[in-house]
Amino acid sequence: MEIAPNRKALTHERIVDTAARAIRRAGFQGVGVADIMKEAGLTHGGFYAHFPSRDALLAEALEYAGQQGAARLAKGNAIREGKGASPFRALVEGYLSDRHLSGTENGCAVAALLSEMPRQAAEVQAAGVQRVRSLVDAVERVLPDGAAPGSAAAIASQLVGALQLARALGDNAEGRALLAHNRGALVAQYDDSSAD
User: Fold this and answer.
1) 106 phi-psi bin (left φ>0, alpha ψ -120 to 50, beta other)
2) Most exposed residue of 79, 97, 134, 179, measured as fewest CB within 10 angstroms of its CB?
3) What is the rounded (10 degree) CA torsion for 116, 120, 123, 124?
4) Mind listing the pLDDT tens digit for each residue in 49-67?
5) How far is CA 63 from CA 111, 176, 183, in A?
């Protein structure tokens, strides 16, 4: 018998979901407790019933954002694989898709927040480290046999860097061209099925 979550658990999840979108949209420093609570439709006073500190919220929101991003990427990858793409190509094409140029609110937490992570409190940094490791692990799982040691970390770095650079250029022809170049280069270098 499945037990329905109680009201406090649902409220907690709503706060974390709101914070996860907000940190990807505005960065860690652009997010205040009062703003999160207001956006979640709650009063500021109820915050401490759910979190001991702002940093505890940020760490949980970062983890949640990473899980959301990974789930969306996996869903898209499954669709691309169903159309014949290799798992590696599906991941690269999904991560570097044109739709990720805008809408950082629902995109990869690592790409959205990477430069800010080292300046955060220890618990937020630890959550950031876990998100980076999860991204590298996701790449590792889809690497073709025979890839050189360390390839997953190098590819994850290129994915994140390419997305950040393309976003800096903007959701325009130049940003899309940068993504396309990196998709093509990664697939050509690492995807054995591209030679078929």
Assistant:
1) alpha
2) 79
3) -30
4) 999 999 999 999 999 999 9
5) 14, 28, 27
Q: Tokens 């955060």 sit at which residue?
A: 120
Rounded CA gap, 165 and 162, in Å?
5
- CATH number at 54-195: 1.10.357.10
**Number of neighbours of residue 139 by Cβ within 10 angstroms:** 25
Residue 195 clears pLDDT 90, i.e. is over it: no
49 vs 102: CA distance, rounded Å: 34
Q: What is the pLDDT of residues 116-167, one digit of tens each?
A: 999 999 999 999 999 999 999 999 999 998 899 999 999 999 999 999 999 9
What's the count of helices (H) and strands (E) in the chain, helices before strands?
A: 8, 0
